[in-house]
Specification:
This protein is mostly helical. It contains twelve helices and no strands. About 65% of the residues lie in helices and about 0% in strands.
Length: about 260
């Protein structure tokens, strides 16, 4: 009778463990961390770094799965933000009046400025909705440029790791694309007039509201629109990580678990 060696038992146990779907995601994550050796490849050369994991087909699959997830999430987030009332009807991303005007909104309504408040808020949110689609190609290019090392950091990082990565890579280019759209839209909807009318009347009727003449309204709306898009992207990332129903393709199911 052949008695298995200790090494043979370990190899068999490892193969059995990796074959269970419940632990598939964990094993792949460990591969990205570099803590599990890759038994599907030839042994490393003696002078190779002991903690290096070859960038094999599985790593490529993981990166492809992450990119697919991010493409879908980004497209959904931008479509939601850019839809009619995408900002106005979403409490998560609705753009409020800036600074002391927001704090004093109830007082402003109480002194008969409710119409001006509503017009001003709606015009800002409409500008953000119009700008949102400009983010798509910039964000998709950042996803396409993502390296395997980037994917490694995202998949083993925090729950919003992909959103943070894309904010770092694409945030400023998206803001630059938003600014002229926001400015043009605010001119079309006469945001500046509404803002000027509101601040002038507020200054006369509500104590403590002053010093808003030099406020950069375009920059405020641009930054709020940018925050809104990435807030929605973070929500999409959370759904894909946590909700099996959000994994709509075989590749996503393979990478993030069934």
């Amino acid at each position: 009778m052949n008695i298995p060696t200790r090494a043979g038992l370990f190899t068999a146990l490892l193969a059995l463990t990796f074959s269970t779907s419940a632990l598939a995601q964990g094993s792949w994550t460990e591969r990205l961390k570099g803590t599990v050796p890759d038994f599907s490849t030839e042994p490393a050369e003696p002078d190779a770094a002991p903690d290096t994991v070859p960038l094999d087909a599985e790593h490529q699959t993981l990166a492809a799965g992450l990119k697919e997830a991010l493409v879908k999430g980004a497209q959904r987030a931008i479509e939601t933000a850019g839809a009619s009332d995408g900002f106005m009807d979403n409490a998560q991303i609705r753009i409020p009046m800036p600074g002391p005007l927001d704090t004093a909104s109830s007082l402003l309504r109480g002194v008969g400025l409710g119409r001006q408040v509503d017009e001003f808020e709606e015009s800002m949110n409409r500008a953000a909705e119009k700008a949102a689609p400009q983010a798509e190609e910039i964000m998709l290019q950042a996803i396409r440029d993502m390296s395997i090392e980037d994917a490694r950091g995202i998949l083993v990082g925090p729950a919003d790791g992909a959103t943070r990565f894309l904010r770092r890579r694409a945030g400023e280019p998206i803001a630059e694309a938003f600014r002229p759209i926001v400015s043009e839209s605010m001119q079309e909807t006469d945001v500046t007039r509404a803002y000027t009318e509101l601040t002038e009347q507020a200054g006369n009727r509500v104590p403590g509201i002053a010093g808003l003449d030099d406020f950069d309204l375009t920059e405020y709306v641009t930054n709020q629109a940018l925050d809104g898009v990435f807030t929605l992207l973070a929500e999409e990332e959370r759904r894909i990580r946590e909700n099996p129903a959000a994994r709509t393709t075989d590749l996503l199911k393979e990478v993030f678990g069934n």
